[in-house]
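Hey, resending since the last one bounced:
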Amino acid sequence: MRLNADRRPSSKSVLLVKLCETRWVESHEAIIRFSDMLIPIVKFLEDMTVNTDGNKFSKCNGVLHSILTFEFILSLELAVEILSLTLPISRKLQDPGLDLTICIEIIQTVLDVLKNKRQNATFNNIYNRAVSKAENLNIEVKTPRICKRQINRSNNITSKHIIEGDTFYAADLPRSIDELKGEIALWQLHWTQQPIKKEKINTAIDAFKETEDGKLQLYLSL
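The structure tokens again:
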């Protein structure tokens, strides 16, 4: 999909990237590019709903209604924030010359950064970006409904910004961090249990060859 310059005044990109289910780098880039081009994409879809009919109209109208919600805008901004951290390591993990010890250090650093983002006031900046984008698209900013008495959280949350962040991260980010921790733990455990070899395994490709014969059933999600 290519957008003309007059329809992307705030975007440097001209083409959307196809979302790939198997290549993580391309998936990262696709979502980040989509966020960058969101406003011109909405304008394009609005034009299509006016100037087309039938099947094209139904598809464009359906996509448009899915996009034009504050929940979608906020989730997209949160995804971009996280993917901007994991994109560099996804690229490095595809380097055949990458040392495994460096690989683990890189992932651990990202885990620490993600924890800090949850604990600090980073979400306020993300929320403000989502609000700004929603206002440009004439989308009503909404906050989730909560009970007057909260019994499942460790403290009483009153800020709508913190409520949004807590709701998102509690449902998604902890699970993602646990999965990453599990991958690293399995990886480290496997190699500590292996006999010492004359030829040291230094690269991701060498390690992959060792796992191909069924010695380790490890599925990397990175």
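Confidence is low (pLDDT under 50) at residues 1-11, 153-158, 212-222.

Sorry for the duplicate.
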